[in-house]
Write a structure and sequence with these properties.
By secondary structure, the chain is mostly helical. The chain folds into 2 domains: 78 residues, Orthogonal Bundle (Arc Repressor Mutant, subunit A); 148 residues, Four Helix Bundle (Hemerythrin (Met), subunit A) (Up-down Bundle). Helix content is 72%, strand content 2%. It has 10 helices and 2 strands. α5 packs antiparallel against α10 and α7 packs antiparallel against α8. It is globular, with a radius of gyration of 19 Å. The two termini are 22 Å apart.
Length: 234
């Protein structure tokens, strides 16, 4: 891992207690936001030294992340962040369509007016920033809106499945949308507005249809972007 000091900048220090869980959460955050990018080697010695911990909790944390599909290991090699390819995108977006399509109807009925107001405000901010070719607000708005919808499920098994899928989709969205054009981002924001309108109308079926349509369009955009990224590496 190169330049780990800057990699860990702004990340909370490890506290006494459940080291494995804290380290797992820290590395996961670095992966999801692509500060540890796809394919990057994770040098356990270096990371343990930077965190001021032994190798053991770092290895345990990486094993947890491997089970989540975020890290891969091979004998006699450093662990690496898993790559992102077209098959990953298809798998993740197909599951998003199933899970978010199912919960969309509940969201239309249960999301509070206050929550819908927050979505509206975040979309306005995202649009203003996107017009200036700044996309962080959009990424934050995108992730927050979809998570808000997922949280209406009130089903613990669904929540565990959704969290796994959401983690894998988050890092793909950070990787792809951060490199997209202003027009691409504005198109996504427009799609989010159509979902918000259906939520505001308290129409479960319309919300489901618009959310699925948005995800299907998103899968096509993401596949195209991942292919472009792969072509640049060749």
């Amino acid at each position: 891992m190169s330049d780990s000091a800057s990699l860990l900048a702004g990340i909370e220090k490890i506290q006494k207690g459940a080291l494995r869980e804290q380290i797992q959460a820290l590395i996961k955050k670095l992966i999801l936001t692509n500060r540890l990018h796809p394919g990057q080697s994770i040098v356990i010695d270096h990371l343990a030294s930077e965190l001021g911990v032994s190798h053991t909790p770092v290895r345990e944390a990486l094993a947890m992340l491997q089970r989540d599909g975020l890290v891969r290991t091979k004998p006699y090699e450093n662990p690496r962040v898993t790559e992102i390819d077209a098959s990953d995108v298809r798998e993740v977006w197909e599951m998003r369509i199933l899970l978010e399509g199912w919960v969309a109807g509940k969201a239309a009925v249960t999301l509070s007016d206050e929550a819908l107001g927050k979505i509206s405000e975040s979309l306005q901010k995202a649009r203003q920033h996107a017009l200036k070719s700044s996309y962080d607000a959009h990424l934050e708005s995108d992730i927050a809106m979809h998570e808000m919808i997922l949280q209406t499920a009130d089903n613990s098994l669904f929540e565990r499945l959704a969290q796994l899928v959401n983690d894998r989709s988050t890092r793909i969205r950070w990787l792809v949308e951060a490199t997209g054009s202003s027009q691409d981002v504005l198109t996504i924001i427009d799609e989010h507005y159509t979902i918000l309108e259906a939520l505001q109308a308290r129409d479960p079926e319309l919300t489901r249809q618009r959310l699925i349509s948005h995800l299907e369009a998103g899968m096509k955009r993401t596949l195209a972007a991942v292919e472009k990224i792969a072509a640049r590496k060749e």
